[in-house]
């Protein structure tokens, strides 16, 4: 059984969909090194917030709580 022109129609549709998307990367005016620095700073701020939240005893956000049990440690995952 032949597929007729279904394959051709599907190719045309796929090309039309792909034509709507731009292949250019986001242009935010930053060099790759500046982007890395920005991302590293954001990650450090996020880690500092999480550490402060964990140190403050606020378990509303969930996380991992380390419980000492005998000679070994057991990780207990707390959920919100």
UniProtKB/TrEMBL annotation:
Pfam families: SERF-like_N. Residues 1-15, 33-46 have a biased composition (Basic and acidic residues). Residues 1-36 form the Small EDRK-rich factor-like N-terminal domain. Residues 1-46 are annotated as: Disordered. Belongs to the SERF family. This is Small EDRK-rich factor-like N-terminal domain-containing protein. It comes from Carya illinoinensis (Pecan).
């Amino acid at each position: 059984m032949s597929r007729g022109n279904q394959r051709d129609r599907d190719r045309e549709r796929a090309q039309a969909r792909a034509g709507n998307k731009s292949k250019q990367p986001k242009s935010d005016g930053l060099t790759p090194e500046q982007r890395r620095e920005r991302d590293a700073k954001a990650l450090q701020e996020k880690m500092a917030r999480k550490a402060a939240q964990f140190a403050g005893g606020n378990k509303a956000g969930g996380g991992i709580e380390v419980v000492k049990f005998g000679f070994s440690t057991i990780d207990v995952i707390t959920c919100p």
